[in-house]
Design a protein that fits this description.
By secondary structure, the protein is an alpha+beta fold. 41% of the residues lie in helices and 15% in strands. The protein has one domain. One of its GO terms (molecular function) is ubiquitin-like modifier activating enzyme activity.
Length: 174
């Protein structure tokens, strides 16, 4: 994840006369990652949750990061660590006000012994997939030509699937 906070780009001025090719500065303000992770999912219904795979609040990598922080930077590599991984996911779910009826089995799915055993192998493939998807957007940012994306992408390395959630972020134009 990359915290842009604010990003300046240039865009063609659609209100300028046709013969004048004016450009205008566009400033987009983004919320920081910590704000995104603190989003509340209290209104998530069962129908909406079934359409999102993986569910947004599970944030598959976030419990892994939590365990990594708790272990002084070391990633998990032992099946006996699964209860710690599950406890972190439960704490994140409770904090995000996830409706347990909407996603009843998510804690068992994302925090099993396989996840605890393969956690050390999980981060790099996720980074590769996300990096590959974002390279075009990074080029747009560096060129200051267009605004960066405003989506939050969650990738589940165990299934090879992911979810893109459009974040409702107000844009400021200067």
């Amino acid at each position: 994840f990359c915290d842009f906070l604010t990003h300046d780009s240039i865009t063609p001025d659609c209100f300028a006369a046709k013969e004048a090719s004016e450009i205008s500065k566009n400033t987009t303000a983004y919320c920081p990652l910590c704000t995104v992770l603190e989003h509340r999912w209290a209104g998530l219904s069962r129908n909406v949750a079934e359409e999102l795979s993986p569910p947004p609040s599970s944030q598959y990598s976030v419990p892994l990061w939590g365990c990594q922080v708790a272990h002084g930077g070391a990633l998990l590599g032992d099946a006996s660590e699964a209860p710690k991984l599950r406890a972190i996911w439960n704490a994140l779910s409770a904090n995000a006000q996830v409706n347990r009826q909407a996603i009843p089995a998510m804690g068992r799915i994302c925090c099993n012994t396989t996840d605890a055993t393969t956690a050390a192998c999980e981060i790099l493939p996720v980074c590769a997939v996300v990096g590959g998807m974002l390279v075009q957007d990074v080029l747009k940012v560096l060129a200051a030509r267009d605004s960066p994306i405003v989506n939050f992408f969650v990738f589940n390395g165990s299934t090879g699937g992911g979810t893109v959630c459009r974040m409702d972020i107000p844009q400021l134009f200067i």
